[in-house]
From TrEMBL:
Gene Ontology MF term list: oxidoreductase activity
Organism per entry: Mucilaginibacter sabulilitoris
PANTHER family associated with the record: 3-OXOACYL-[ACYL-CARRIER-PROTEIN] REDUCTASE FABG, SHORT-CHAIN DEHYDROGENASES/REDUCTASES FAMILY MEMBER
Key words, A-Z: Oxidoreductase
UniProt similarity note: Belongs to the short-chain dehydrogenases/reductases (SDR) family.
EC number: 1.-.-.-
Classification via InterPro entries: NAD(P)-bd_dom_sf, Sc_DH/Rdtase_CS, SDR_fam
Pfam families: adh_short_C2
Top-rank taxon, per record: Bacteria
Keyword Translocase assigned: no
Protein name: SDR family oxidoreductase
Amino acid sequence: MISETKVAIITGGASGLGLATTKKFVENGIKTIMISRNEQKLAETAAKFGPLCVYKSYDLNDLAGIPALINEIVKEYGIPDILVNNAGINQKKDFLDVTDEDFQHVLQTNLISVFAISREVIKYMTEKESGSVVNISSMASRYGIPYVIAYSATKAAIEGMTRAMSTELSPKGIRVNCVAPGFIATDMSAQALNNDPERKNKVMSRTPMGKLGEPTDIAEAVYYLASDAAKYVTGTVLVVDGGNSVGF
C-alpha cells in the first residue's frame, strides 16, 4: 500500500478511467486532488469518496493559469508525490475534414497541457527529489486507426515525451511512466463502438481475451506505476489491452 502521507493529482479524475483511478487511490489512503472542467462531476465524486478526495475546477487549456493552480495546490496540500495525466479528448472525423483548428484543439488538450502541468508539478517534485508521473496513452499510438488522426498523433507524442522525461528526470528522483489502455468499457468507447458495428467486431475479434477491459484494470496499472512497488520502473509504457496488440 502507498503511504497515507502521499498526495496525488489526477487530471480528468471524475469520469471514466480517471474516476476509477481516483477511487483506487482514495481507497489506499492517498489524498487525491482531481482537476477537471466539470465542477458538478467533481463535486459529486468528492462527496461520494470522502475527505481524501478533493478537487480544483479548472480548464487545463488555459495554460497561463497552470503555474498558479499548482502553486495553490502545493500551499493547500503539500508537494504532490504523484501526477496522473489522464485528461484528454477524442475526435472521430475523416482525415480530409479535419481542420487546422480541430487538430490544434486536440493537440492543446491532450499534449500541450500535459507538458505544461507536468513541468509545473515537477518543479516542486525536484525540491524533495522524489515523485512519480504516470501519463495515459492509447492503442491509437501503436495502430493506424482511421478517423482519429489528431488523437493518434497526441498519444504517440505522449509516449515519446514519457521516454524523454524519464531519461532527464529519473536522476533527480522522479520516475515517469505511461499506461496504454486497449479498448476499455467507458462511456466514450461505448459511444464510439456501439455506433460502428464493424469497428466493434474488429476490436473483439482480435482481442484474445474476447472482451473489453474495465476502468479498474487501468486504475490498477496506474496505481502500480505510482507506488513504491515500481520504484525501479521508469520510462516504460505498460500496455493493458487483453492481448489486443498481439492478437491476430
